TrEMBL record:
Coiled-coil residue spans: none
Motif ('KMSKS' region): 197-201
EC main group: ligase
Name of protein: Tryptophan--tRNA ligase
Length: 341
């Protein structure tokens, strides 16, 4: 059976981008057709300046939202990265295979490091090595597929390179995974600046629809979306990124096609209105389920505990195999090894 792995960082409130680019597919498609693991990657949240209490709060909230979005612990595994030591164990081995040059070429590293420097802060070493930990997340489970939004494709490419390199040097150990992207909304853009991705760590939330935004807030944000000076509704991501973004979001929410939807509208106003309502409708059941789950934190904790146990059982043998392959002795001598001495 195909194995799927994906992750999400608890670095901010989850956004419509996270949902349309990744979570929705995990819930609607991946968990039903594959052996799937979905991870709240809390260690990744420590790569930039953070408040420990906020990370704890957002880790719980992110896990709760994954369940609210429809991940079903009876058919998939949901867990916190820091509950499974194998991620960090494997990350170190992969650091011994990755190069400094390839880390510095990562677009997200360049962007986040520049932002951190602009703020007058220093760049943590873990921000540079972060894609290696992400590779470890994936390779520890022998995942075949990694369903992500477009912004993570470069990191999955790196994961493939590291897996191939490790296998060539030390013998076949890892499955070489592939990226799967959604057909529409692989990159939802910021409503106030449609040349930038809608991200959860923005300084201003005006262009970002959060999954827990009230319906009226969603409507306001979408109605105020920056479009362009033209009038005609056309799907042109380069020339008219604002309108194209709205068409992508509408298409993703209604199951349509952005190009054909463009023909249906003759004004930006009506496109915005329908997009806002479509988003409100997509978020409604998720928010209702989220309220129910918040009333039962013990349930969420139980899911995470069981999930970590299942994940550990899968990752442990894989990471042990990698330790042996790279030249590390097992802690307890195996009978065959002591006999050979
Ligand atoms: P993160 O937490 O930034 O995002 C989680 C998922 O949401 C997708 N996404 C988007 N898709 C479309 N439009 C957007 N505006 C948008 N914003 C976010 C992301 O592509 C991602 O699929 N490094 C990863 C987390 C990670 C991971 C992994 C993912 C760590 N280990 C292993 C897959 C496998 C990240 O920062 O995602």
């Amino acid at each position: 059976m195909t194995r799927v792995f994906s992750g999400i960082q608890p670095t901010g409130h989850l956004t419509l981008g996270n949902y349309l680019g990744a979570m929705r597919r995990w819930a609607e498609v991946d968990q039903h057709r594959a052996d799937s693991l979905f991870c709240v990657v809390d260690l990744h949240a420590l790569t930039v300046e953070h408040d420990p209490a906020r990370v704890r709060r957002l880790s719980r909230q992110t896990a709760t939202l994954l369940l609210a979005a429809g991940l079903d612990p009876d058919v998939c595994t949901v867990f916190l990265q820091s509950h499974v030591d194998e991620h960090s164990r494997l990350s170190y081995l992969l650091e011994c295979v990755a190069t400094d040059g390839e880390m510095r070429r990562m677009i997200q590293y360049k962007e986040k490091a520049a932002k951190e420097r602009e703020r007058g802060g220093s760049v943590r070493l873990s921000l540079l090595t972060y894609p290696v930990l992400m590779a470890a997340d994936i390779l520890a489970y022998g995942a075949d597929e990694v369903p992500v939004g477009e912004d993570q494709a470069q990191h999955v490419e790196l994961t493939r390179d590291l897996a191939v390199r490790f296998n060539q040097r030390y013998g076949h150990t890892f499955v070489v995974p592939r990226t799967t992207l959604p057909q529409v909304a692989a990159r939802v853009m910021n409503l106030q600046d449609p040349t930038r991705k809608m991200g959860k760590s923005e300084d201003s939330g005006a262009g970002v629809v959060y999954l827990l935004d009230e319906p009226d807030t969603v409507r306001k944000k979408v109605m105020r979306a920056v479009t362009d000076s033209g009038r005609e509704v056309a799907y042109d991501r380069e020339g008219r990124p604002g309108v194209a973004n709205l068409l992508d979001v509408l298409a993703a929410c209604t199951g349509g096609n952005p190009e054909s939807l463009a023909d249906v509208y003759d004004s930006y106003g009506s496109l915005k209105k329908d997009t806002a309502e479509a988003v409100v409708e997509v978020l409604r059941p998720l928010q209702a389920r989220h309220r129910e789950l918040c009333a039962d934190p013990a349930y969420v904790e139980g899911v995470l505990r069981d999930g970590a146990e299942k994940a550990r059982a899968l990752a442990r043998p894989m990471v042990d195999t990698a330790y042996r392959a790279i030249g590390l002795l097992p802690p307890v001598p195996e009978p065959a090894l002591s006999a050979a001495r």
